[in-house]
Amino acid sequence: MFELSTLHLSTFDISLLMACALIAGLVDSIMGGGGMIQVPALFALLPGFPPPTLLSVNKFASVIGTMGSAIQYTRANKSPWGLVIISCIIAFIASVSGAYLVTQIPTQWLRGTLPFLLIALLFFSIKSNAGLVHAPKYSPHRQKAIASTGAGVIGFYDGFLGPGAGAFYKLLYTRVLGFDFLRSAAPAKFLNIASNLGALCVFIYLGYFDLRLALLMAIANLIGGQIGSKIAIKHGNAFIRKAFFILVTVLIIKTFYDAFLK
């Protein structure tokens, strides 16, 4: 069942939610991590809503916004569709599993390890030129095996917990497979869509969804994603790389705070 709210919000609150969704879409299209803006805004302005409903609204808006920016990146650079499609299927299935499991067991132990994993990944990436040059490392068959394995792990994490999943997908393509940032953008976006859809299906099945609120957030997120992807395509790999490092640094700070100080 869909839970349809009456949306008893002031014009200011609705405008603020949509502004946050627009900014989230813009940020997410360039470097990922838009959920760090969108989720806190939803929880702050709608404290009476069930948390799973707010999370499902975030997932829906992100799917629509990310789809728009993924199409923009696909127009700019040809995507390896065989690689993308099989990885997306794996990411979707893994995310469904992760989203179901998160309703059954506590996640605090994972929250505590996440900031340290992100720190390791940040230094791992800074010490290389990953993402600046497009130099695929493996044959097509091996690419599919590696990409599918990575998509399964990250997709499960996205359904189970989620923060920074878009950054992990981008790392999979740049650092592991050898793609540059622009050519990894569309595959990473489609993987993020797949794992978001997997978790969203679980939330909807359990009855946690608000269609009207989700549509409002999705429209704003889509507009932001279109703006951000055009900026990224215009300024190229070096710009996206810097933005990516900023995102991971912010993720480290946020996940450390959530795990140990909140």
From TrEMBL:
One of the record's GO cellular component terms: plasma membrane
Pfam family for this entry, one: TauE
Subcellular location as annotated: Cell membrane
Keyword annotations of the record: Cell membrane, Membrane, Transmembrane, Transmembrane helix, Transport
Family listed: Belongs to the 4-toluene sulfonate uptake permease (TSUP) (TC 2.A.102) family.
InterPro entries recorded: TM_pro_TauE-like (IPR002781), TSUP (IPR052017)
Membrane topology summary: Multi-pass membrane protein
Name of the protein in its database record: Probable membrane transporter protein
Coiled-coil zones: none
Organism for this UniProt entry: Polynucleobacter brandtiae
Transmembrane intervals: 6-27, 39-61, 81-102, 109-126, 146-169, 190-208, 239-257
The UniProt record lists the keyword Protease: no
